[in-house]
Write the structure tokens for this entry.
Amino acid sequence: MSIASRQVSARLAAGESILRMSEAEAEVVEGVIDPEDETMIMNMGPQHPSTHGVLRILLELNGENVLRSKPIIGYLHTGMEKTAESLTYVQGATNVTRMDYASPLFNELAFSLAVEELLGIEIPERATWIRMMMTELNRMASHLLFLASNGMDLGAVGMMLYGWKEREEILRFFETVTGLRMNHNYIRPGGVAADLPDGWEDGVARILVALPKRLEEFDTLMTGQPIWRDRTQGVGLITTPEAVALGATGPILRSTGAAWDLRRDQPYLAYDQVDFDVVVGTYGDTFDRYAIRLNEIRESMRIVEQCLEMMPTGDYRTQDPKVTPPPRARIDESMEALIHHFKIFTEGFHVPEGEAYAAVESPRGELGCYIVSDGSPKPLRMHIRAPSFVNLQTVPHMLTGGMIADAVAIISSVDPIMGEVDR
Amino acid sequence: MGYLNGFKVTFARLFEDRVTTEFPAEKRPKPVRFHGRHVLNRHEDGMEKCIGCELCAGVCPAKCIHVRGADNPLDDPVSPGERYGFVYEINYLRCIHCDMCVEACPTEAITESKILEFSFTNRDDAIYTKQELVVDDEGRPRHQPWELWMEGEDEHLSGWMRATAPSGAAAFEGRVGWSGDLGHGVRPPEEGQTAADEFEGAEETEAAT
Amino acid sequence: MLGDPLFRNGVDWGDFAVMGVKVVVAFVLLLVATMFMVWFERKFIADMQNRIGPNVAGPWGILQTFADGVKFFFKEDLRPANADPLVFRLAPYISAVTAFLAFSIVPIGGVFRDGEADTGTVTLFGKVTYLQVADPPIGILLLLAVSSIAVYGVMLAGWSSGSKYPLLGSVRASAQAISYEAALGMSVVAVVLLAGSLSTHDITAGQAGGVRTWYVLSAGIVPFVIFLIAATAELNRPPFDLVEAEQELVGGFHTEYSSIRFALFFLAEFMNVVTMSAIMVTLFFGGPAGPVLFGMTWFWPTVWFFAKVLVFLAMFIWFRATLPRLRYDQLMNLGWKVLIPLALGWLLVRATILQVDEGTIDPVIAIIVGILAAGACFLLFTAALTAGDRAYERDQALQEQALQEQALQERAVQDQALQERAVQEQAVQEREGSR
């Protein structure tokens, strides 16, 4: 027995886990581990139809039953937090918007709120309401995407296209406003990039009119379907203390009965002026998480309706000349304006030294942006508290004791976006 | 019977309209503000608008634009003023269509078209040079062999630029702050935003009192 | 009862020719029907999802399956290093051959008249024969036997792939097939009871007297419903497609297959759908029965037959478009605790009704005995289930206990390690202190 394998067996005997071992070491380990042990180790992912991208889950199976599991991440690591350090605050929104690609506007919002906190500027009321309306629409789009992928994961193939179809309507509206379907670069520090276009009320109204009928169809197809209920109810249970201990937020926390929603508990934007309910579950199972998301679409529609009625007029970007470039009509008139224009687009604006944390309630939970500034036009450090990343911690807990089919349902109900997990 | 209700839903869908388009044969309409591939505009007299200031290259978060300016030849100037864009290249393997360059350009030289259906098969084609980007003598983008065009897509080049022009000031919305384009003249501002109109009126009355 | 008239007066070369023609026609017909089914499924489900579906190859994309088949032929045939070479290669053929075999007993035409001794025949090359490849006296049993063999194809494919997902798929396949085969067989017995024969030709002939005599009605609706559910499970169609559940097992048993071997599985699967629909039409919906509207008498029954089959094909697709997939344990529960007892019970009820109709038993006695028997069965069944549940709970408790003990042991080991480390650190500190 070599020294290395002796070490391995010693470590195993001490209850430690080993990441990698050679064949010789494995032979030793076979002596340590019970030979009657008939469990199977299975890799679910990183290429697997239902791990939502490149999530890899290591499952220890006894037949179909999951004994232990371990999510492994990092397959989509793109170093966005580091990239943020080399982009000015003006360019920053183009970077953060790519993290949670299913709800890009929330990333931009969290980033902008943090920068604005550092700058100490007020943004115009119209910008606030535009932001609120757009992010709520984005929440609807994101939840529709969830309904689609959740249905697909549980074998209801029709749901996939039904969900995508409705989401597409919202993305089309986004396209008329921002010019892009995803990764908009629309919400910027200081306001929004452009005013709502002519006829935006009709675009929003069309969505609000068409969606309730569809949601009822989803209710018939899934909520009322006994097979669906059998598949989701009582699966992937988690309690409030467990969810809190694991740091879970969003629908996962709310499914346990804890009514924690940043929009209500730490109002940002103008959420204290609109009327909406926080949807909570009771059992903390997969069905509750599904039902919460379905009903949050309805709540978001209520908020959007109020935005439609109460949308104020005025500027849509702060008129602080330090942050916002001058209007185009002024560039030709004034040399100072032109110089200023150049400065903002090349150097960017300086942000006072300090640090700030801003959190928003993204469709997946608390999405926070933490920025440390050294007074230069680029962040010294940016960190994103990504809800998908934190929520993923609940997966091993929820998977234990279920079957493979349950594992699929549970991963789907956590709704992780790997771009955000790995950043 | 909960088991059977769903069948009604799927059956009813049989009689709804198709939502997919048969893509290579038809394309869905693009909104005014759509971000497509770039074009380099020219003044109404045919001169290029680009002055080689490299602001677009500076602001580009993906670092996909390469610009080099040069002094205008005195006998045959390319652009009005002192300098012009001598080299202008955009690498579409990097471009993220964020439109920062359009916002940054002080002369509205670079704008984005509605064309996004291009599939080049080598890296040389991916880098659009100045000859490919500058509009032709009628003010239309040049059709590259690997681009799929539909009728009317070469118009409305700069809707997004017009939308972003006021820089958030409601008072400047709808006010033309840009020069004319070759073949198109001075483009009108984007369709009036209802709320902005109201606001501008309010400010004028305020100024009168 | 008499068998195919073709063979009644000895066998000559003409009979061989007729048989040959029938085999070839059945083969081609099934192949074309399968290709149509694949296209029809894609097109129909696309309609239900507001999509267009295949539309490039041929008019309305009808040649899409053909194009896919050609593509499969030219793909590389891969075999994983761990796979069992012989079995891995054999499995697709088992699936495909059995899929073809099952169709041979289905009568696809012929005018059936009620009460006639030798009905449902056509004349081919001057030979009077049935419009089906074979009419063995054990017809339906052959179907059950062949469909059981088909499971071997799936099971061996998964097992021989030397890979984990296919293995799980094949385990699921064998369990599922065994459970649902029983229910399938039980529901067929009710039909056999009424027809008095296992031969598919006789079963069809027994339903020639109009819609009223179709076994879907005269056997009561229950056997048909059970057969439909069990057949869907037997075919691995949604909502019972656990064997190849893409979202769970990637591709299930055929994950490791590529090229033409994969195509064979694919073909076999859809062929089985067509065959099972045809069997359902034969058993419960009168087979080719239907009015002869005008002109060619031999032509209309075939049209009716395929029209009925088409309805079932659409139904299978509709299932897929609507229902979510069941979980493995739910599938087993449905099979063993619902379908099999129901099929058995209904068989008894139907048999009793038959006897009462014939006047062998007094109805009052039948009802009393029936109620008593039902009560006894119910009690036994509940007792069995509770006993099972209790055993399961006991096992769970034991397992949990073992887990807890293990955790305690682990903690003890950890504590010990911590203590040791503390002692070591203390020793180090002391040593440093002494320096």
About this structure: Chain A has a mean pLDDT of 86.
